[in-house]
Amino acid sequence: MNYEIVVGLEVHCQLNTESKAFCGCSAKFGNAANTNVCPVCLALPGALPVLNARVVEDAVKLGLATNCTIQRRSILARKNYFYPDLPKGYQISQFEEPICSEGLITIETDEGRKEVRLVRIHIEEDAGKSIHDIGDDTYIDLNRCSVPLLEIVSYPDMRTPKEASAYLQKLRQIVKYLGVSDGNMEEGSLRCDANVSVMPVGSTEYGTRTEIKNMNSFKSVEKAIEYEAKRQIEVIEAGGKIVQETRLWDSDRLETRSMRGKEAAHDYRYFPDPDLVPVLVDDDMLDRMKQELPEFPEDRTARFVAEYAIPAYDAAVLTVEREMADYYEETVKVSGDPKGSSNWVMGEVMRTLKEKYLDIAEFGISPVRLGGLVRMIGSGTISNTIAKQVFEIMQSDGASAETIVEREGLGQVSDSGAIEAAVREILDANPKQLEQYRSGKAQLLGFFVGQCMQKMKGKANPTVVNEILKQMLEG
Ligand SMILES: [Zn+2]
């Protein structure tokens, strides 16, 4: 029998707020263990939480960007469970009344565009962290307690591992464009659980699903779903039944394994948190958030094509990341050459970033400096070959392209006296070729041009070289 895979994703996105969700502690990652803590996030008796307004604003922005209905009134609830790194014995979350509901994210698939519906987006706080890899003991770091998260829950609308990965990448692009999260999967800013089931092709009834945890890259999401679907099909084909459970992805052994029985919502005994008032979103805030929305990739691509007259392909590549698109636009401002700039950003800049595992934000050449370099190529001051040399120097040298070209003597020589002298030398050194040329072998012109350029170390202006050569060859 042929089966269809059914996937829904639950994604936890860590917000990049200064302070935590319910207290004033720093939400910064990487500080010494148990230093970002206070009576509220340590759950000392009598301490009272206060909701961080930025968290609400970020949730509204993400809701607007994903076509959700923004609830004007939502409730914070307690999700009760015991865990050593959860001192309160509950997580503050949202249950019956989340802040955003019924959204939509459009993804690109091999068959074209596809819409994945969202059930909800809700506000949640993170728990602390248990550290198991120091000696035989387990240590607890409570810095992460109460760091703000948004949980984005999709409908089971995805049908292949690739679609799940495309959805996750799109979601990452949206939170990064919004600037509400760094979207870093390896560092856990974006955590994804997948609900996976299989059903016979053509069926409308979903099979029993399992939940897969612990995938920390796009590749592992694809691999884990692929593995899990295959496992489920084998169980069913052998006459067995799928057990509803939570399974862990083991990225070393490339398999999922059972972790625990799946808990249902009622196991958590959710109830409205009596310490927190309802969250209200008024017209004023909604308008403000709408105005703060950035120009998203699709719109920006269209504008780049219209405004800069660059190919749609270039525009799409340049707008994948907001920072890259910003970098490109800054470069164009200085260079005045949209196509030349896109060639350099998509070519040398992206290649260098990839080689050095850098983000554009960490790149040593500012857009103003790159713009200066591109401008010098456009004006004929340097050739493309020399520009590549200058680009290499600029990576470890803070000077402008102009300064480097002058200092290193790399400027293109258009001075006809210098070029004439070089041409004469080349003609004298190659009498045989000169004779052949004069007796009609016109294609030897290229040979002479090449020799002259080599003699002048690539710095001669090729147009001037051509002109002078022709004159002297005729003479
Ligand atoms: Zn605190």
- C-alpha-based Rg, rounded: 30 Å
Structural class: alpha+beta
Q: For the report, how would you describe the main beta sheet?
A: 9 strands, mixed
Strand content: 15-25%
From the spread of the alpha carbons, the general shape counts as elongated
- Relative helix content: 40-55%
Contiguous runs where pLDDT drops below 50 for at least 5 residues: none
Break the fold down into its secondary structure elements and pairings.
Layout: E1 3-14, H1 53-65, E2 69-70, E3 73-74, E4 77-80, E5 90-93, E6 100-109, E7 112-125, E8 129-134, E9 137-141, E10 148-154, H2 161-178, E11 190-200, E12 210-215, H3 218-237, E13 245-250, E14 255-261, E15 271-272, E16 279-280, H4 283-292, H5 297-308, H6 312-318, H7 322-335, H8 338-356, H9 367-378, H10 384-394, H11 401-407, H12 416-429, H13 431-438, H14 444-455, H15 462-474
Parallel strand pairs: 12-13
Antiparallel strand pairs: 1-10, 1-11, 2-6, 3-16, 4-5, 4-15, 6-7, 7-10, 8-9, 11-12, 13-14
Helix pairs in contact: 1-4, 2-3, 5-6, 6-8, 7-8, 7-9, 9-10, 12-14, 12-15, 14-15
The chain binds zinc ion.
Zinc ion is lined by residues 20, 23, 25, 37-38, 40-41.
